[in-house]
Design a protein that fits this description.
- By secondary structure, the chain is mainly α.
- Helices cover 72% and strands 1% of the residues.
- Strands 1-2 form a two-stranded antiparallel ribbon.
- Helix 6 (116-127) crosses helix 9 and helix 14 (266-276) runs antiparallel to helix 15 (280-309).
- The longest helix has 38 residues, at 2-39.
- The protein is globular, with a radius of gyration of 26 Å.
């Protein structure tokens, strides 16, 4: 009897090990992709310690140590440039965080639509822009808002203006313009996770509230909204951890000589310095500092999450 119990125990342990190994094989390709695209490129940080010249290669370039980092904070002109770039980065990040509740509110309103076909149309129309590249978005913006675009042509035909309005070729309201295009492109996609969270809310809560006389507004305010707050908090903390990550594509395609001073965020600045200007070592140094600050922000936000929610996000 005891031998049978021991044998069955060993068999169950062996079965669990086999299942664990099979699960590991399932995630192995994703681990390899993560290593290839997220960790392996970090070896490029060594270029920040050299005065790298592509024609000479790393072996033929001069080793300069921390000179690029010293120049970033020791050169007054470079410090002024970084201050301008960080102002743009912080402004766009704060505006993005300030409007981060919009997808949740839209998801709540979509959930209240009872006409299923209309609801699906709205979801498709709001989600579709997420799959449009920023190059096509700028092409559309140019056709609509350039000096010879449809909006200016229509306003001139109606005799509302005499000279075209420079919507794109101006430094005014650049942050708000970028925020508006970003919201338009990502609003529907951001709603998806909240709609999934709404689907997981216990329907008995709604039924009990209706019995107590609650209307639809009361249901949204006292059940749906509080139930979505934990999801929003996690997404907000993750967004805060990526505070310096504004992206490159949107600002790259919309930049021009008129708005460059206000549109150049940190990611675009790294590209302009490293690729456009050919100073790969300086661009790598700035990118390295950005990565370090982002990691510090991530662990700081994780610590705050433990204190507030009692749960870690990493």
């Amino acid at each position: 009897m005891q031998k049978n119990i021991i044998g069955s125990t060993k068999t169950s342990i062996s079965t669990k090990k086999d299942k664990g190994f099979r699960y590991f094989l399932l995630i192995l390709p994703f681990l390899l992709l993560t290593f290839a695209f997220a960790y392996f490129p970090l070896h490029g940080w060594i270029y920040s310690f050299w005065d790298y010249r592509p024609a000479l290669g790393l072996a033929g370039s001069n080793f300069v140590g921390l000179n690029w980092f010293v120049m970033l904070f020791g050169n007054p002109a470079q410090v002024q440039e970084l201050r301008r770039v960080m102002t743009n980065t912080f402004a766009m990040s704060f505006l993005t965080l300030g409007t981060s509740m919009l997808p949740m509110f839209v998801a709540i309103l979509l959930n209240e639509i009872r006409f299923t076909r209309f609801k699906k149309y709205v979801q498709v129309l709001t989600t579709l822009p997420n799959f449009i590249s920023w190059i096509l978005v700028y092409s559309m913006a140019f056709m609509l808002f350039s000096t010879t675009g449809m909006v200016n042509t229509l306003l001139q035909d109606l005799d509302l203006i005499t000279t075209p309005i420079r919507f794109l070729d101006t430094h005014r309201f650049t942050w708000l313009q970028m925020l508006g295009w970003g919201i338009w492109k990502g609003l529907g996609w951001g709603c998806i996770i909240y709609l999934a969270a709404i689907a997981g809310i216990d329907q008995e809560l709604y039924e009990a509230a209706r019995v107590d006389g609650a209307n639809r507004f009361h249901l949204m305010r006292h059940i749906t909204f509080p139930s979505l707050l934990p999801t929003y908090l996690v997404l907000f903390l993750l967004a805060t951890a990526g505070f310096l990550n504004n992206g490159l594509e949107q600002f790259f395609v919309f930049q021009n000589a008129f708005n460059r001073a206000n549109i150049e965020v940190l990611d675009l600045y790294i590209y302009n310095v490293g690729i456009a200007s050919g100073n790969l070592s300086l661009g790598t140094a700035v990118s390295m500092l950005k990565s370090i600050v982002s990691v510090v922000l991530l662990f700081t936000v994780n610590f705050i999450s433990k204190k507030i929610r009692g749960e870690s996000i990493i």
